[in-house]
Design a protein that fits this description.
The protein is α+β, with helices and mostly antiparallel strands. The protein has eleven helices and 19 strands.
């Protein structure tokens, strides 16, 4: 369903440049490991991404790891975007789309729906739903201009799915979700698959879920980031400010966290512990952060403005969000230091503050060592989601995170030695 021949732009230089950049983007997606299937590569070659983000330059539009914000709220925060090609490719690979499938996309931007339409072909059906009429109108307009007007664009709260077009073989969610609504399970066909960026203890991963004996079972996950869900599925994180507006701690609900006591802890001397566990320059370690998030008794994400880092209040990793062990009057967070400039290897460590800094720091450093010995490079955690009414006795062993619709259970089977 190549669309370029159906479009007659006045600027032939632009369309030629766009085609070159699109080919380069696909090559980079291959190199990044985001694309494996040739069918996915062909879809990215076919769909003119720039038509769905005309406010951005061609170079930005076709950058493999760059999203394009298309709408912000009154405070300037992004509430709609065209996601980065790398995460879109990863999620399409996770979905394993085939010709003839019926697909629901939650969150409309237009471009991703067009990619899905390429993959399911003329015999498939694509429905994209968004709660924001402006976003839906924009998606509808650009889909038509690009030659994908057969995509169904629906304005609705996706918490309820789109029952009039169900069942779906795949549901692909392109907004950050805190929970899995029951409607998505009800509207998924037997043998179907849900791909969703789900937030667990403050960290978001794109999960592949399948139904098994009345509950969801994860088949894998990838690091990702998305604008948050709106409507009934919206769920704001709690931000505990511990040093003006410069240093804060993001925590999930249920924490008995005192800003005053943690602020007092920050004023105490910093305690350091180093783990002897190292990582290479470009080696990913998001699995470690997920391990810490799902094994520490109380967990948060320490964030800081550049001024706080420059002033030496917190380490530099807080600028990007540092996994943090939290107690009532103390906290400890994961950091890194370069130990070999030639190989660019760095060592994981812990910075801690407060009366219980020593205990928290040593406990967190031990968890880093356990991850390195028992889980690094392994299959990762086992994640299942059960209906919220499921009693404890019917759940498997593991950390239980109770949400509105689901109870998520996370365990880490050891695989080494």
């Amino acid at each position: 369903m190549s669309t370029l021949r159906d479009i007659n732009p006045s600027d032939t230089d632009e369309i030629s440049r766009a085609a070159e950049l699109r080919d380069a983007m696909v090559r980079e997606l291959h190199e990044l490991g985001a694309i494996h299937a040739e069918r996915v590569a062909e879809a990215f070659r076919a769909v003119p991404r720039h038509l769905f983000a005309p406010e951005a330059s061609l170079e930005n539009v076709y950058a493999a790891n760059r999203s394009v914000v298309t709408k912000t709220d009154d405070n300037g925060a992004a509430i709609s975007s065209v996601s980065a090609p790398s995460i879109q490719a990863t999620m399409l690979e996770q979905a394993n789309l085939r010709p003839g499938m019926r697909v629901l996309e939650v969150g409309s931007g237009g471009y991703n729906a067009a990619l899905i339409a390429e993959l399911v072909g003329d015999t498939g059906e694509v429905t994209t739903v968004d709660i924001d009429p402006d976003v839906a109108d924009r998606a509808r307009r650009y889909l038509a201009e690009a030659g994908y007007d057969r995509v169904n664009v629906v304005v609705a709260d996706a918490e309820n799915g789109v029952p009039e077009r169900a069942p779906f073989d795949r549901i692909i969610v392109t907004a950050g979700a805190w929970d899995i609504p029951s409607a998505w399970a009800d509207q998924l066909a037997a043998g179907g698959r849900l791909v969703v960026p789900l937030r667990l203890r403050g960290l978001t991963r794109s999960f592949v879920f399948e139904r098994e004996a009345g509950h969801w079972v994860s088949r894998g996950h990838h690091l990702c980031g998305f604008v948050p869900m709106q409507g009934s599925g919206a769920h704001e994180e709690q931000m505990v400010l511990i040093h003006g507006d410069d240093v804060g701690l993001k925590v999930e609900g249920g924490h008995s966290t005192s800003a005053d006591r943690l602020g007092a802890a920050l004023a105490q001397p910093q305690v350091e512990r180093w783990s002897d566990v190292t990582v290479g320059g470009m080696e990913p370690f998001d699995d470690l952060d997920f391990w810490l998030a799902t094994t520490l008794p109380q967990f948060g994400i320490l964030t800081a403005q550049p001024a706080a880092v420059e002033a030496g209040l917190v380490g530099k990793w807080a600028r990007w969000g540092a996994p943090t062990a939290v107690a009532e009057d103390s906290f400890a967070y994961r950091t890194l230091k370069r130990v070999d400039p030639d190989t660019k290897r760095s060592e994981f460590g812990v910075f801690a503050h407060g009366p219980h800094a020593d205990t928290l720091a040593e406990s967190m450093a031990d968890l880093i060592r356990v991850w390195d010995h028992d889980h690094r490079g392994g299959p990762g955690p086992q994640i299942e989601a059960y209906p919220a009414t499921t009693p404890d006795a019917d759940l498997p062993d593991g950390l239980v995170i109770t949400k509105t619709h689901m109870r998520v259970v996370i365990s880490w089977p050891a695989h080494k030695y």
